[in-house]
Design goal:
377 residues, alpha+beta, three-stranded antiparallel sheet
């Protein structure tokens, strides 16, 4: 077992830092090597055909050995004491490999929700320690499409059904916001039914959760719960942009590689001017997406008051870039891009599903208009 990577704490800069530090590049190298070994394309495709898309060994290595699950958790609570910048690097690599792992939902959204409660002891702090070690996973029991600005309680009490909860089939704990407050509910507890749904993105399971007289551990009252849920969803939307960036980068890189190797009329198809223009245009989109995603991660990491605006801008732009890159990848691969054996379809499905997660691009454009005090589009 390798020791978790240690991250050096730095003082927040006065201006956004869009570059990657050496610590972040070291973390990237470790995560990329692990995913290349445990989550290559044939492995991921085979996992989507099984009843259990998650590989427990992969999650144990990513969360525990590398220490990725605890990046947002302070050291005093058992985490790495890093920031959203480092978590964004992990999500870039997970997007690049479309590996099935509950990182976004558990290590970002659920973790950030618990951190917003500010508890240094008690059940919330204990659960944070378990999430940081990777021993357990948790999900916020709201539909995956819920935007930060539209966060609201789906249930009045611990009774009823919530549909479209991402990663719920593999979660150990549900964080359930109700009109009474936030509760931690064991998925294996009495009165809890988790019904797997058929998702578009086969690498990220969805479920409908039904609570019938379930018993939960109270974590916060209604006001604190509402604030915590908004913060969790804001972090999720902001760092989802990094996953979308990873998707787009892989699609562009793979498409360029293929068009260099694929020959037609005795020359590489990538040498045709029309395809050069399409890939050059896509490269410009990816570069801009990287700037938007890094700005959102940096704003969240530094606690910038402009974080909601940075997140809205990143989501409004990056979701469309990921979908466009995946569509171009499928089309420019020709016939093989349409096959099940080639992983292009996994990226297209992930990009399409991500474009609705934590709010659509349209809802984020509306948020940009409101936050920047501009006329609505």
């Amino acid at each position: 077992m390798t020791a978790p990577i240690q991250i050096t704490a730095t003082q927040p800069p006065t201006t956004p830092d869009l570059l990657y530090s050496q610590d972040e590049e070291d973390l990237r190298s470790a995560v990329r090597a692990l995913l290349a070994d445990r989550a290559d394309a044939p492995t991921v495709i085979a996992a989507t055909e099984s009843d259990t898309p998650y590989d427990p060994r992969l999650w144990s290595s990513l969360a525990g050995d590398i220490g990725a699950a605890g990046l947002l958790v302070p050291e005093k609570l058992g985490g790495q004491g890093a920031s959203h910048r480092e978590a964004a690097v992990v999500l870039e690599e997970l997007g690049r490999s479309v590996a099935p792992a509950p990182y976004l939902t558990s290590s970002v959204v659920a973790t950030e929700t618990l951190l917003a409660l500010g508890a240094e002891d008690g059940p919330a702090a204990a659960l944070l320690g378990e999430l940081a070690s990777g021993a357990r996973t948790a999900v916020l029991a709201v539909p995956f499409a819920t935007p930060p600005a539209g966060a609201s309680t789906a249930l009045a009490a611990l009774d009823g059904t919530v549909r479209g909860i991402a990663d719920a089939p593999a979660a150990d704990v549900l964080l359930v916001p109700t009109d009474e407050g936030l509760y931690a509910v064991e998925t294996a507890g009495p009165g809890v039914t988790v019904e797997a749904l058929v998702p578009l993105d086969l690498t990220r399971p969805l479920a409908a959760v039904t609570l019938t007289g379930a018993v939960g551990t109270p974590l916060a009252d209604a006001d604190a719960s509402a604030t915590a849920v908004r913060r969790g969803l804001l972090a999720g939307a902001g760092l989802l942009a990094s996953e979308q960036l990873g998707i787009a980068e892989w699609c562009l890189t793979e498409t360029v590689r293929h068009t260099r190797e694929r020959h037609q009329f005795n020359r590489p198809v990538g040498s045709f001017q029309a395809l050069k223009h399409r890939m050059a245009h896509l490269w410009l989109e990816v570069v801009s997406a990287r700037a938007a995603a890094r700005n959102a991660a940096d704003a969240l990491a530094t606690g910038s008051p402009d974080a909601p605006l940075a997140v809205a801008v990143a989501q409004a732009y990056c979701s469309g870039v990921a979908v466009h890159a995946a569509e171009e990848c499928v089309q420019l691969h020709g016939g093989i891009g349409m096959t099940w054996e080639h992983p292009a379809h996994l990226y297209l499905k992930r990009a399409k599903a991500d474009s609705l997660a934590y709010g659509s691009a349209g809802s984020h454009r509306q948020a940009v208009a409101e936050l920047a005090e501009l006329p609505a589009p």
